Automatic annotation (TrEMBL), chain A:
Pyruvate/ketoisovalerate oxidoreductase catalytic domain location: 11-171
Native source species: hot springs metagenome
NCBIfam families named in the record: OAFO_sf
Alphabetized UniProt keyword annotations: Oxidoreductase
Protein name per the record: 2-oxoacid:acceptor oxidoreductase subunit alpha
UniProtKB/TrEMBL annotation, chain B:
Cofactors named for this entry: Mg(2+); [4Fe-4S] cluster; thiamine diphosphate
Keywords annotated in UniProt: Iron, Iron-sulfur, Magnesium, Metal-binding, Oxidoreductase, Thiamine pyrophosphate
SUPFAM superfamilies: Thiamin diphosphate-binding fold (THDP-binding)
Protein name as it appears in the record: 2-oxoacid ferredoxin oxidoreductase
Annotated ranges, domain Pyruvate ferredoxin oxidoreductase beta subunit C-terminal: 198-261
Organism: hot springs metagenome
Biological processes, Gene Ontology terms: cellular respiration
NCBIfam families the UniProt entry points to: PorB_KorB
Amino acid sequence: MDYSIKIGGEAGQGIQTIGETLSKVFSSAGYHVFTHQDYESRIRGGHNFFQIRFSEKSVMASRDKIDIIVAFDKASIEQHERELSEYGQIIYDSSTLKQKYEKSYFLDIPFTELAVKHGKNKIMANTVAIGAVHGMLGMELDILIKIIKDTFIKKGEDIIKANIDSAIAGHDYAIKQCLKCSFATAPFTKPKMLIAGNDAIGLGAIASGCKFYAAYPMTPSTGIMLYISSKAKEYGIIVEQAEDEISAINMALGASFAGVRAMTGSSGGGFALMVEGLSLAAMTETPIVIALAQRPGPATGFPTRTEQAELQFALYTAHGEFPRVIFAPGTPEQAFYLTNKAFDIAEKYQIPVLILTDQYLADSQWTYDNFDISKIKYIDYRLRGDALKSLKEYKRHAFTNNGITPLAVLGDSKHLVVADSDEHDEEGHIIEDAETRVKMVDKRLFKKLPLIHKEIEPPLFYGHQNPEIVISGWGSTYGVMKEVVDELLSNWDIAMLHFSEIYPFPPTNKFNYLKVLKDAKITICIENNATGQFAKLMRTETGYSFNQLINKYDGRPFTIEFLMGEIDALIR
Amino acid sequence: MPSLDDYKGQDPAWCPGCGNFSILKAFKDAMVELSVEPFQLTVVSGIGQAGKFPHYIRCNTFNGLHGRTLPVATGIRLSNHEMLVIAVAGDGDCYGEGGNHLIHAMRRNINVKLFVHDNQIYGLTKGQASPTSMEGIITKNQPFGVLSEQLNPIALAVALDCSFVARGFAGDTEHLKWLIKEAINHKGFTLVDILQPCITFNKVNTFQWYRQRVYRIEAEYNPEDRIEAFKKSLEWGDRIPIGIIYKNNRPIYEEKIPVIKDIPLVRQPFDITRIEKTLKDFY
Ligand SMILES: Cc1ncc(C[n+]2csc(CCOP(=O)(O)OP(=O)(O)O)c2C)c(N)n1
Ligand code: SF4
């Protein structure tokens, strides 16, 4: 069992709700689920889709071949009919599409009519469709009914009943009418958790004790702010919607300076405005975590689509020279743990740490058995309360062996805390002399760097142990690369290297990934950008050049079939 | 009880005779009279001659970026609303580079005290026009004279219903000290625009120029009347009023955030075990 469902329609038709409900049913049934979304930058109209893949085996990317298309607009048929798999089916409502399709794989289900008849409201058409998908798959409605009850508990019995009746109507109709449906689903097992990249970053921040998040909304980073605000009350977090991104990063720095863990997030254009603040964080040695959720540029580019083209921006942006750390999680799970690591490293070394994500990871959902809270690191590195009071003297930027001076909390003692964006002395006051300048650069940059470098983990190696072909990538291409390796392993000695801790560039002492690359015949770097930014970084940092590049920059993520085709063309 | 000595900072690098000196003196005197200990306050500033102010006193300090004083002050205050947070800015810094932040700080009504050293010129970058430069004033960078209309920060603040709006003058230190104390004692965001002659670059708005025009607002004036405040805010030219121009009792931002109702954010404990419960949302 490995099925893909695509729900397509105009913005405002509830595509996402249907997609999320079905994904929740599948994950509750214990299946592995992977979803991704494609939407236009508009609130109503246009054409959007929500794609779900589920299986009893692990899935981590989308396929091109679709088994069930739920079509709420004509574009869903025009654009996606050719994606239908051999036994695939398209369900639609001829009364809303105002068209009848005669081919054998079309199934006309009167969503609206059934909704009015059984749910007493045409809004229930979506629930009819969800029920119909259940019927086609031969799945009973138990899990869905429970989800309906949980979702509408506050709306009352009537709404619950209307939804359940509509789902049953769709389910029964599909069973009776879909004579060609030959889907079979695996037995239910233990429910799995289903989580998207942005929620995982938000959850990771909360689990790291983040208490202040300031941002200005910008797709696809907004989801992080939304998730954290949904938990603000429960966890005692201030989420401030700043007047602009310049303010957002400066507010977060103020909060961090005052003694709480703080974070901000944006996408390219908003991050561009934060750049001076990034240098400020470095100069004042104020810890901060910044989520940079990439979308295609330049400028506002493709607002709702995906790309990995801000690696070089993240690497080189901001003025002056200072240490920074860049993580690029490949999965929601990595996003969760790396966000925690980002907070830990930012606080420990008093530096800015960036989490590079993108629309594809931000919105796609994965299933897991669990996240392991015992792996979360929470150390309060700040000097506060009695520990601070007992000090005889305190200087915010005092020279130490490792370059780190504990950050004292203002007002907790008589000691004063002074920070300055200009070059400063140990106390934090403005200076202009050459000697102190050199010592401060050494403190901020050269002393901390080797320590930070030690914290960086090597890339993940997966596949054949002595590969002739190595594919490499970073960030959100993890899932598709892994699935492609699995597919190709039967015919080729292939492996992958996936980088999620990108900068400082991983050292080779924990695992010599350079040897793996050098020993292989063909090495390919796979990136969702036009110029191969990671391949360039690899060359700059290690001198190693990949043999081949595969770049996709149409604003859409890689799918398994597409990537297989590209790799195939290079290795044959 | 703090003494003036407790507030003694680095030696100022301002031009001898600069109006900034009297502001510094009025500020220190106000702190001592209010019995604020240096560790109980944080002064945030940006970049400019005024931006160097916190180095010339002793207290907690964040001297950040040009124009970004208010966001940093807001972040500090939200994290620790028991801290007295003072923002010091130049007119270029606050009305030019940071104009957007000023508007929104007034809207939020965060309890931060803003003191603007308004010398109607860019001092640190050697004499270009600022938003408060008067129309027609010739500078090296404005050879045809300033072509834009002079910004009226007081009228702007009254229009935005800013909680406390006042104008001070560096040449009247006693009155300025009183204003600083009033601002600190007021609950809400306060803008105190301080006329501060730049003796080096502003040859028009000199001490003498101001002395001829500045007058203390009459005792019977009611600063809680917004319409009167609008009228007062428009006085500029032959007579320039100093004192409290407008004030109201709008609730402050910090009090509206339930999260920090009982304890400041910075002192709230973090219990990681609760995450287990939150994870269940995803099943
Ligand atoms: C982003 C940025 N732009 C420009 C500058 C250069 N700069 C430093 S101070 C200043 C103007 C200062 O004028 P004002 O705020 O009126 O303060 P004053 O020096 O007159 O007290 C400028 C433009 C800077 N430091 N940062
Ligand atoms: S340049 Fe003007 S504002 Fe700056 S210190 Fe000199 S007199 Fe004061």
